[in-house]
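Quick start: what a row looks like.
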Amino acid sequence: MLQKRNLIVLLVLVVAMVTAVACQPQTVEVEVTRVVTETEEVAVEVTRVVTETIEVEGEMVEVTRVVEVEVEVPAEVEMEPVTLKVMNWSQEQADFYEMAAAEFQKEYPHITVEWDTLEQGQYRETLPLMFQSGDSPDIFFWLGSNRVLTMAELLDQNWVAPMDTSVLPDDFNGRWPDGSFLEGINVVNSLPYSFPFNDNVVWGPGYMYTNKDVFTAAGLDPDTPPTTWSELRAVCETIVETTDAYCLSVPLGGDLLRTWAPLAGMNYTDTFFDYQQGSFNIDDERQMETFDFLQGFFNDDLVVPGNNDKNFARQAMANGQAAIYFGGAWMPGVFAGYEVPDLDLGVFAPPVPDDGRSGSLRQSFSENKYYISVQTDHRTEATQFLEWMTRPEGYFATEYLAQGFGTLPFADMSQYVADEGMIQVIDVANNNGIRVGYPEPVVACPDTAGSKAMTNANNLTKKWELISMSEALLNGESFAATAAEIAAAKNAEFTDTLAEEAAAGLNVGVECFAFPEWEDITQPYDSSLYESHEMPAAEGEG
């Protein structure tokens, strides 16, 4: 049955002098009716009615007659109802996702989006089980163990299908900055599998959030944050001595990265891999220096006590139990979801070592997060939803930014971001350059997209560095021996896997991951250096 969504009627009145029986004027009325379904115009009906005055037996009589009817009706069109299941984490954004699903259905009435949002830990346990049972969502959110190679990991697991390019507009890729779509990262054989959801300049870890009221209560200027490690230490001592609050609120376990990244990133790198030398690096003296600095806060009771997760740690700062929480760009939206309407939030760059900044956080192709399941029966509709979601001036983009949930590379953040905290985050990122472009092994060596060396090493023990550091922090123990053990085990697995892969025909080697020509880690890697980068010898060479 033809489904009419709207009816457009155009009335055109044309008065012309024509030759009739009595050479009287006639009026021609043309009615054009366009019948439109959800997706396209499917019929055109043209009716021409002529009204003229003629002489009949000596009297002038007005006569109206249909002189032509043209009807073009194609085959019958029926839109079958479709239900798309979408899953991700970020529970604090669940209400927004429900509203977005409702807005999408206004444009696509036959598609119902059921958006399920779980806690991150539960999500990571649940989604693999859903794929195993053949009951995966149509669209899902995922970050792999190597975030840049998430797509490669998901292809290896047979979880993902490409987007349906037949329903994508020609300018789809143009919504993102140049270079956002790269073979091996979010594209395979020119087919897109994903897209950068968040930008890679602002988005990520590395920000120092403060409760300004605690600073004020301690007699400190809330708008003058600590900028060096020594200043941070002095501020923390003052806060604990003069108020009932602790200074730092630090999540432990796998969540320790939120505190670790900004401190380690300003000293060396926020990764556990050295892209200058091509090796796992938790035992590097600069990493150990950062650990020892952080452990001093635990040893001197400057940190909210307990083995706390990220949710507890965040709320402790928001509620005034602590003054400082290190976290990612998404935190203004998280804090806004707590019942602390009077929180006076400060957002600042992380403090640097006393002798100056000597490192940077990694800016990489790590923000490809939404994928279409290979198990879906609705790949076209799933693609239509992702296309709708990424429209630069569409509901999702404008409201996501306006509500302060994060940053998007496919929309004008300066135009739509309204949250003061998020505006501060963007300013900190843009004015301090805390994140720089690291070299990408897959660009230097395309075969690394198929390598499992990095993944195998990281999978020896999940979040090995973070969990081991957390235990040492809680127990006041040295971390040096454990760090050396972790680095040795991961490097052995890494190099052994590369050797096996090279023997099997992959053109990979440690050279793909080592960029000694990148001499200053505080500056972005110069992409022109890829041309002179040392490559592994192909099979049979050397």
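That is the whole record. The mean pLDDT is 87. Residues 188 and 324 are 43 Å apart (CA to CA).
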